[in-house]
Every structure is written in structure tokens, then in C-alpha cells.
Design a protein that fits this description.
This protein has four helices and ten strands. The chain is of the alpha+beta class. The chain has helices at 3-18, 30-42, 107-114, 143-149, and strands at 23-27, 45-51, 76-81, 83-84, 87-88, 93-95, 104-105, 131-136, 139-142, 153-159. The strands form three sheets. Strands 6, 7, 8, 9 and 10 form a five-stranded antiparallel sheet that branches.
Length: 160
Amino acid sequence: MSLVNLAHVCSHIQNASRARLGLTSVPSSNLILALMLSLQTSGFLSSVKRAGAFPPSPDSTEPAEPVTQQNIASRRLWLGLKYWNNEPVLSRMNLISKPTKRVKLDVEGLSRIVRGRDAGYVRGLTRPGECIYVSTDRGILEARECVEKRIGGLLLTRVL
């Protein structure tokens, strides 16, 4: 799991939403795909499609081309960004765990964050719509889901 690539993706999505782009692409990896699908489930993204170097057609329901040794480096995730009242739904996306300092929290720490209190140097969730995504052994989940399921993990990103 490369947190450096995830940092690049966070800044790219933040810049794309500030530039009012409707569609943008990020490199494809299993970690980034799981995080983007979680963002889509939470309502921050309108679509997530895996394709090549060129964007897929909007009305295309055909499956993506299979991954081979020749095209594996050019695989991209194409993300549809959402806007509400001419403002981006995803306005900020920051990395919590850095490549040099990984932040892991148990259920008690996550429950403090969800209730709006600080846990360590991680600030609590204080704004409406703010989410923290956690990498667990059950996949990438939102912090509130982790508290409900009573599991902890590695904090990845804070999205607002």
C-alpha cells in the first residue's frame, strides 16, 4: 500500500474539483479503487469507471478491457465529480496517515473522533458531511461504520 500515490490522488481530486472538472482520472490500484468506491457510496463522487488512457463513453455499459502485461501501466480510474448549487461536493481531501507516520486507531479512538473529540493529534469530526476513511481488515470503511462494527484500523483520508 503506497501512501505516496494516495497523497498524489488526494491533491489531484482536490485540484480537479476546484477547477470545476466534470471528469478526471487517477492511476488505478486496488487501494485507490476501494477508496474511490467508498467515496461514491458516501455520495462524494458520481461515477467510478476503470478504463485506459482515454475516458470511457458516458453511455457505455460494456465491461472494461481485460488487464494484460501490455496495458497494465496505462490503466486509469475515471471519476465523475459532483457539484451542488455550483459548489463542489468534495471540497477538501487530506491525507491523515503520511508515508513516514502511519496513524492507527482502535475503536475507542475512532469513537472519540466520530463524537467530535480529538484522539491523539487527529481532530474530531466537527463539520456536517465530514468523513474519515479507515483501512481495515474488512476493506476501506468510513469511521462511523468502523465504530458500528467495532473495528479499528489505519486512518487514510479526511474528506469534506
